[in-house]
Amino acid sequence: MHITKCNKENEIHLIFFHGIGDNYKSAYNYVQGLNGSNTNHAHKYPSAFQNYITYAAVSFLFLVASVSAPIAILLLISPITAGVVGLASLAALTCIFLSVMLIFIPFINRDQSLLKPSIEEINELMDKGVRPENIILFGHSFGGAVASAVLKHFADKNVKLGGVIFTSTFSSFHTAIGHFPIPQAKILSMLPSSILKKLLKALDLDFDLVNDIRKLRDEGKLNMPVIVINSKRDYLIPQPAQLAHAIENDVLPRGKLIKTVNSKSYEDDPHNGVLSSWELDENLTDLILNKIDKTMNR
Fold first, then answer.
1. 73 CB contacts (<8 Å, ≥6 apart)?
2. Could you count the other beta carbons within 10 Å of the beta carbon of residue 21?
3. Which residues does UniProt assign to the signal peptide (predicted)?
């Protein structure tokens, strides 16, 4: 689909927030090929986020060390006393702590690093004459949390954007941690819920999409289309942690502006396969065409 623009005021802009493990170049190439438009943008995450695989690899090494280091201490130091056991335990706990913290480092300081690039880009587009209601946010996986936070930022300033699409996104970071299939998440999920929530809040990682959408709805600011696409077969963000599941189970009552879709594409990779699914293409095309119709009827 190719879109002809008459002027900046009528341009339709799409901003894509990719998930963990991708980089800006591949995200940019993907979003440029979505609908043949040159007004698609990829969110520019900080370098720590784009190098997340490196952080994850080092985190895994510390997790391995949490087992190997105590064993080495117990084998190398004799006799084994209470002090030696305490040292081995301290080594294990230190390695586990470092492993968990390395997983979270790229996400910290959301306002200064995670959100700022697209907030500045949207402000720049509006300064150039682009209508805010013609700017659509598209968040995939963890990128959905960032897109939701950007949406909330502008809604709090009474700026109405054009809509948001979530694919393979969780309902809240707190809920997702209990279902992520990685050891570090399993360790964190052992903490009492109240402590885990306080920890995430202290690290500025208390992303709660359901609560944000509910708050916007209650304040009368949810006046744009919200499309949520999840796959029930998603192994990375299983159904109990999915945003679509939360909405469908009346945690967040649906209205005429909120639409949930169950993607049935790509059984081998249901989490990322949605990015190439017909469900996404169909809903994205409908949303953009609706924007075009409205601008042409002004």
1. 84, 87, 88, 91
2. 15
3. none
Burial class (CB in 10 A: 0-12, 13-18, 19+), 129: exposed
Q: In what order do the strands lie in the sheet with 226-230?
A: 40-42, 13-17, 135-140, 163-167, 226-230, 258-262
Q: Which of 271, 250, 248, 270 is nearest to 259 (CA)?
A: 248
- Lowest model confidence (mean pLDDT) among 45-59, 155-169, 196-210: 45-59
Query: What are the distances in angstroms from CA 11 to CA 7, 97, 135, 283, 293?
Result: 7, 48, 9, 19, 12
Report the alpha-carbon distance of residue 135 to residue 15 in Å, rounded: 8
Query: Are the C-beta atoms of 261 and 283 separated by less than 8 Å?
Result: yes
Q: The whole model's pTM is what? A: 0.83
Residue listed under structure tokens 């300064």: 127
Q: How confident is the model at residue 68 (pLDDT cuts 50, 70, 90)?
A: very high
Whole-angstrom distance, CA of residue 4 vs CA of residue 19:
30
Is residue 11 within 8 Å of residue 5, measured between CB atoms?
yes
Question: Helix, strand, or coil here: 221?
Answer: coil
pLDDT in tens, 71-105: 999 888 888 889 889 999 999 999 998 888 888 77
C-alpha distance from residue 177 to each of 89, 94, 115, 242 (Å) = 25, 21, 21, 12
